[in-house]
Specification:
about 150 residues, Endonuclease, Chain A, 4 strands, alpha+beta, about 10% strand, 4-stranded mixed sheet
Amino acid sequence: MSINKNRKALSQPPDARVSTQMRLIRKKDTKPEIFVRRIVHGMGYRYRLHRSDLPGTPDLVFPARKKVILVHGCFWHQHDCRLGRRQPKANPEYWLPKLKRNRERDLTAEEALSRLGWNVLTIWECETRDPVDVEAKVRSFLEAFI
């Protein structure tokens, strides 16, 4: 966040501050996603990004292998780790149902991808702390003949 945007956010009342922060959250090109993309590219694999013609608009798509990788933020997609178990403090009557819908949408998209013959790997934000594990997980997934 730039200094001017940060100053502006701090000068607002708390609810407006939360709205400003929420608007800055990205849907694509997040830090965990870019981290995974760099690892996968470094391994020599090439992929397509965010194919909107596939259910759930997967983050990384390997068309020839018929495989996709989804990179999920733990909080937004309600992972069962420490980050994912955190509950919103501001406006929970809005955010809790939204987070639940996110999770339901993820499951629906994964099922639809599977029905279409795609293999799905989900990498969680908390897993990106260990690049060796991510690389091993991706390599195992992409090299498996399913």
